[in-house]
Design a protein that fits this description.
single chain; mainly beta; OB fold (Dihydrolipoamide Acetyltransferase, E2P); five-stranded mixed β-barrel
Length: 143
């Protein structure tokens, strides 16, 4: 028997490097969105979160690329809960039952880096450059 999973999504947490028993591994979360139609016929997006693990040697180059907001393609196999054989079931912060999907990655491809955050516009003219304070309502308006 054989199965393969391919997921395209956005990195939710920066990848972290860990020392395993025989080799190092990196771990990060990945959000994948999928449009669906609800019972009212309205299109919604459903987000599924995956925990991704990649083992190997010399993962530092990959580690530097996988940052929060990056878009990546992951190929690998599902890792089931050892006791149940299903996804890991847990209670989330809201107190609702949830499932964690684990993927042991064979291949990770960086599609794009996160979009840079816009810097706020800063004017060269400061409030102190004016003779009057325009925050107050004491200036003459044209009628």
């Amino acid at each position: 028997m054989y199965h393969k999973v391919t997921v395209l999504g956005n990195v939710g947490t920066d990848a972290k490097l860990y020392d395993g028993i025989n080799s190092q591994y990196i771990r990060f979360s990945l959000a994948s969105n999928r449009p669906i139609r609800n019972s009212n016929g309205v299109q919604e997006e459903v987000t599924i979160w995956f925990n991704i693990t990649k083992t190997g040697h010399d993962l530092t180059g990959l580690l530097a690329q996988i940052t929060k907001g990056s878009r990546v393609l992951v190929e690998g196999v599902l890792v089931a809960d050892k006791l149940s054989g299903h996804p890991k079931i847990f209670t989330n912060k809201a107190g609702v039952a949830d499932a964690a999907y684990e993927i042991a990655a064979d291949n990770i491809v960086l599609i794009s880096h996160p979009l840079p955050k816009e810097k706020p516009f800063i004017s060269n003219l400061m409030k102190t450059d004016y003779d009057i304070d325009y925050d107050e309502d004491n200036y003459d308006e044209e009628e």
